[in-house]
Write a structure and sequence with these properties.
It is built from six helices and 17 strands. By secondary structure, the protein is α/β, with parallel strands linked by helices. Helix 5 packs across helix 6.
């Protein structure tokens, strides 16, 4: 089911460019989660509506299933010093290989070599550099006093949220870069479409007869990696770990068979569902790594509607939503969003594509 088969296309990265004034890049979340703006996009006609996010319930029908990604962002950015020289070093934890063995991104990488040790939190945590991986990341082994908790406990104490590079303001409340339903620790970035939901809104959605079903995909920093190739089919997607439970697959399949729609919250839920659905539209329980790359020409097997934020120019996420609607409809919608001064990217406003 997981396929990285490339669909032929003449589209280039430049075909997904658009003009975005810098002041429309949201630097902080809205004061109330579900008070963000919502653009509703009809993917057949291109018709647009302008709403508030809590109006999303009016577009969900009894029998639908809302699929959320319950991965939890870890405070994965660490600032420390090189034990040998005292040089300032920054880590971003990317992928857990074992409990205390991680793949990390290091800055400045030129100063960090196998055999070096990095000290964090005045000695609460140390990292021994084991090897340099393909692409320049490091494999490290963390060491600490286990009587003070596990690695996640220490990250909660001394780590920082790994906000994307276009957010330059300090985040006062860590919880605002976390969905209210976040459960399984492991993401290096938030599944941001879910940031708009409140517990009260989710309760109202369930009360209307809509199932809220979690799947899990640990979001990697590769989600922010720019597409640097001219032809999009030459781009190599990052791989991310996902999991879909038997219970989740059963509920989704039953709702779908009864005529309900699968509404994916975010591109991460969408990519997970499309990775585990066969050509007959059956969702299978499974776990593993997916590097699925969705761009125009892709035929969706699972997702009927998509809730998502407004994405970066020339990004794989903009390519995905352009596959779900069309490139022309999405670029027009983005032009309107700019004109109407919607807020863009991780802390920005949302759209429902249906």
């Amino acid at each position: 089911m997981i396929t990285n088969e490339r669909i032929k296309t003449d589209l280039t990265t430049k075909d997904f460019d658009y003009y975005l004034p810098e002041e429309l890049i949201a630097q902080h979340p809205s004061e109330v989660r579900d008070a963000s703006r919502l653009m509703v996009i009809d993917r057949r006609t291109g018709e647009l509506e302008h709403k508030i996010f809590h109006d999303i319930i009016d577009y969900l029908n009894p029998g639908d299933v809302l699929v959320i990604n319950d991965s939890k962002v870890i405070p994965a950015r660490l600032y420390g010093v090189k034990a040998e020289t005292g040089a300032q070093i920054e880590f971003v934890l990317l992928k857990q290989h074992e409990l205390d063995r991680w793949e990390v991104m290091v800055r400045p990488g030129r100063r960090v070599h196998p055999g070096n040790t990095i000290i964090f939190g005045d000695g609460l945590l140390r990292a021994d550099i084991l090897e340099v991986l393909e692409g320049g990341n490091r494999l490290v082994e963390f060491g600490y006093d286990h009587s003070k908790g596990n690695i996640y406990d220490l990250l909660d104490r001394i780590g920082n949220m790994p906000l994307p590079p276009y957010i330059t303001e300090r985040l006062a409340d860590k919880s605002r870069y976390q969905t209210v339903y976040a459960r399984e620790e492991g993401s290096a970035a938030a599944p941001t479409a879910g940031l708009h939901f409140t517990p009260e809104l989710l309760d109202r959605i369930r009360a209307k007869g809509i199932a809220v079903v979690p799947v899990m995909l640990h979001v990697g920093l590769g989600t922010f990696r720019p597409v640097k190739v001219e032809h999009i089919t030459d781009h190599e997607m990052h791989s991310e770990y996902f999991s879909v439970s038997e219970e989740a697959a059963k509920t989704i399949n039953e709702r779908k068979a009864a005529g309900g729609r699968i509404v994916a919250v975010g591109t991460t839920s969408c990519r997970t569902l499309e990775s585990v659905t066969d050509d007959s539209g059956i969702v299978h329980a499974m776990h593993g790594d997916t590097g699925i790359f969705i761009y125009p020409g892709y035929k969706f097997k699972a997702v009927d509607a998509l809730i998502t934020n407004f994405h970066l120019p020339e990004s794989t996420l903009l390519m995905l939503v352009s596959a779900f609607a069309s490139r022309e409809i999405m670029l027009h919608a983005y032009d309107v969003a700019v004109r109407e001064k919607y807020r863009f990217f991780s802390f920005g406003d949302a759209c429902l594509i249906q």
